[in-house]
Structures are given as C-alpha cells and as structure tokens.
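As described in the Methods, two query proteins were run sequentially through the folding procedure within a single session, without resetting any intermediate state between them. The first query and its resulting structure tokens are shown here.
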Amino acid sequence: MADNTSSDNLHKFLESDDPAMIGMGLSMAKGSADSSEETLGRILGLYMFHDDKDIRSLSKSVFMKLASPDVKKVVKKYWQAEYRTQPWIWKTGWMGKMVLDLRSEETTAIFILVKALQINDEETKSSILEIIGNSMYDSFSSQECTDPNSEDYGKISFRKTGLKRNFSIISTTAIVAAMIKLIKSFSTKRVYYSRQKQANISQISAVTTIEILGDLGDTRAVETLIVSLNNTLIVQESTRALRIIGDERAIEPIIQIMEYTINQRKESSYHSGWSRTGPARWRDLNEFAKALGKMGNLESIKTLVKGFDIESSRSALSETEKMSVMEAISKILERAKFDSKERENIIKFLTSEDASLRAMGNSLLKGMLNESNME
C-alpha cells in the first residue's frame, strides 16, 4: 500500500483537468498497485465518464488490473461504454442499483457519481444528486409543493429515512468540492419562473445540492453558501445549510440579508408568500431567525426585532415568523446567561404590538449591549 504522501499526490494527478497529468496518475496507480477504495473509485469514474476516449481506455485497463474479481463482476453487470451519454441509466434507477451493489462489495461509488455530475443534462444531475443523498441515508427524495394556495407553494422539501452515514474524509472532500462547483454554476445563472411552475429541475438540483452540503456539515462550503444568500431562488436553503454547519462567519451576512429582506417588505407592501411578479418566498424570515437563534449574539437581536416595525398589514410578520423571532431572541439571551424571567420580560417588550413598549424594549437592549461591551 502506498504511503499517505504518495496517495495524496496520486489522487491529485487523477483529479487533474489535464489529460497528460491524469495519464501520469494512472501510470503511477498501475505501478504502485494501489487498490485502495479512494484510488479505485477515482479510476472507475475516469473509466466510465471522462470525455477523453484515450483516458477512458487507459483507466479501464488500470481498473481491470487493480480491482477485485467481485468488483469487476459488478461493473461488467451494469456497464457498457455506450451508456456514458444515455440518460436512462440514471432515470430508471439502473445506476442506483450499481451503486448499491458496489457498496455491498465495500467499494464506494462516490467518485463515479461526482465525475458523472459533469454531464450537461439537468434531469441527469438531479438523479445523480438523489443517488448521492441515498448514499447518505437509506432513503432520500425531494418533493416540490405545487399547491398554489399553500404557504409552501414552490418550496422543495426532503424526505430522509435511516441513519446518516459517515463518509471517509477523502470521500467527503470529493462530494463537497463537486457540490460547491454546482452551486457556483447555479448562482451565476439568471433563471426566470412562471407563476405556474415556480421551480424547474435546475433549481431542484441546486436546492438538493445545498441540502447535501448542509447535512455533511463541512465548513469548506461556508463561503460558497454565503455568496448564495444573494440569490433569491436559494437564499432560504442556503441559510438553513449555514445554520446546520454553524460557522460564525455566516452571522453578519445573514444579518445583512435579513435586514434587506425586512426593508423590502416594508417598501413593497407584499406579504411573505408570493408577489404579483413571481416567487417571493425569499422574503420569509423564519430561516434567518432560526440561524441567528443558533449562532447570533446580543447584537443580532437588533435585527431580529426590526420585523415588528413593519406597518403594512400585508407585509407584517406571520404568526410563525413571530414565534421564530421570539425563540431566536430567547436562545441568544440564554447563551448570554439571562435567567428565564429576564428573558421573558425583555422579549415581551421587544415583540410587543405597542410601538412605545417596543421602544422601551430597544432601550433595555441598548443598555444590555453597553454592559456586555464593558465586560
């Protein structure tokens, strides 16, 4: 077995975009007889999905030399060269079965799936992402709410069953890198939606990608998710993922987007559901409040309470939003060592429907912040 340094170098070659570098990596793998799960997975991904025919041919040769008879049997059962560009292998569950069979042979298919994500077909990407989700759970599926009368209209929710599986560090790194690349690609697109269809396959893929990143909890995704807060199509999901990861770098960006959202609701007089021109679910404050409740400090409370100053009845906080904000404030105060009675009184003032009482609450908050800064 190659040592860690040699393996790291080998993997860098195999992950290169330069065919010459990949060729060197394949020669290294063949010479070192490194049949580790991570190396073999990368080689199999190249064999199945690389664009260069010569790379695919060389990868196949190395794979056949290094793989165990049982693993080769699984690949031969499911794979033909012409399948590479055929969407049906993903849409019918064919590749999902191959992934399960490889797992039964204690071989990861993550590197195959990550490599396949380069396919330029949104439906295929969506299917691959669901298989990655199913690699983490016993069952993982997404569903879009299509009821125009529902508050969740256009929202994509996930159903997960079974325990979340822990990937190796190398597998996690590969998934995170691929997911970050997908999100960056989506974030640069301008996508328009009709009222009849609020989310297309591309958006579902983006939301699924963010869900996976959040579940992995890897801090390498934080900066990309922070940038995604500026995309109204995925801001809610990005906020949720950042909350799950729990990195404090996200606090200030979430505060900024929450304040922007509150100002938009003040100016537009639209409620948090749907505007006349398309989806406005991004105006919902629940996820922002939950995130600040988990990560925020006393300064965050100043932003949380601003929603209560929205005067228009159409834009006013929903009961759910009010509850989320109050719970967030309570959690922040609890972390700041305020007892339950103090928390109750402060929240009562800050969230009162009476503007004068809210003003008193803000004065109390200002005093608390001054005391906190002096300590």
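Immediately afterward, the second query was submitted; its sequence and tokens are:
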Amino acid sequence: MNFGQGAIADRPSWRVTLAIAIAVVACATGPIGSPAHGRGLKDVPAHLSTIKPIPAPPGFGGICTKYPWACAADRHKTGLTPEEVQLVKAVNREVNRRVPMVEDRVQYGTDELWTLPGSRGGDCEDLVLLKKQILISRGIPAGNLLIAAVLDRSGRSHAVLVARAGHADLVLDTLTDRVLPWHRTGYSFLKMQSPRAPSRWGAVLAGGIFNPRQ
C-alpha cells in the first residue's frame, strides 16, 4: 500500500487520516517497554504452534489469489527489532482508531466476506488484512505476520493478526489498542495460518478455554 501524499487524494476520509497517521508514527521514535510477562506463566510457550492441518475459516477462500501478500512465506526472521515492535503497535492503534467498523451484512449484503476495508470501513477480518498489508509494505517480513481465528473473552468468533517477535507472539486486535503477548489476551486460539505455508491453516487449540489457568 502506497501512503504517499499523491496516492490518497481520491480515497475515503478514513484512508486519508490513516495514511497521514502511519506516516507520522513511522518516523517517530520512543522508548520500547520491556516484554510483559505474567506471573505463574513459566510453562506457557512464547510462540503459538499449529498441531495439525485444518480447513481455513469461511470467507478466507480466494484470499491468496486476490491478495498474494496475505499468504506469502518468502521470507521471515526469528524476531523483530524494537523499532519494528513500535511500528506494530502504532499500526494496530491507528487502524483501530481511524477505520470504521462495519459488518459484512451491512456493507456487502453477505454474512462473510474477507477483503480489505471498503469505503465504509470493514469488520475484524478486513482490518486484520489491512494491518498485515501495511506492515508488509513497511518492511515487516510476511512470514512474521499470521492471521488467527479465535474466540474472544465472551466466546464470540473473532480474527486477530499475530506478529512473531523474538520474545513472544504479539496480537494485533481490533477490540483493543494494546498489543499483548498471545497468552495475555484471554482468547482461545482455534486456528492460524501455517507459519511455513500461510496459504494453509492449522489447528492451534491454545489459551482461553484450552488453558483455563492462564
């Protein structure tokens, strides 16, 4: 995604304000907090893993053809720099604040459609795709950004973006501006893009109802 000034003149207002905000935070510097670790979580793995192949969520079909970057696995690295973690946090915050939330049924007349946000905004899957696209365009390796399907704290289906940092898998979430390690979200992780082949999905079954002591 091009966030240059000449590329945003004809875009919806949320795209203009988001482009400006991302351009500003990408140039900003600031202290990076130390990774947060919960008490009594020594046995919790830092990173999520897929345990067996499983079908992708409804609506994901065709995404790899429509948006090849969403399924790219051409490069990855073992962690993210402090500056990259700062960028991850900024993109999560600015997309959440500037892109309106609207359900697929309202915007497209269908129950489930994964796509980049439209002129009226998007739902959680749409914002996840936008965050992934922006971060890839800013230099974060595609292999470090994986989409996951979860149950939120209320047991509702939800989608998040997992950024694979060195100390933990960090979760970009439309429900909060905070970027937390996966085990601190309270979510039940059902399935996730396969780290080795993001066009495929694997069962995770971790956190939340699967680990009630977390």
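The chain has one domain: 5-31+48-210. We note this only descriptively and draw no conclusion about the first query from it.
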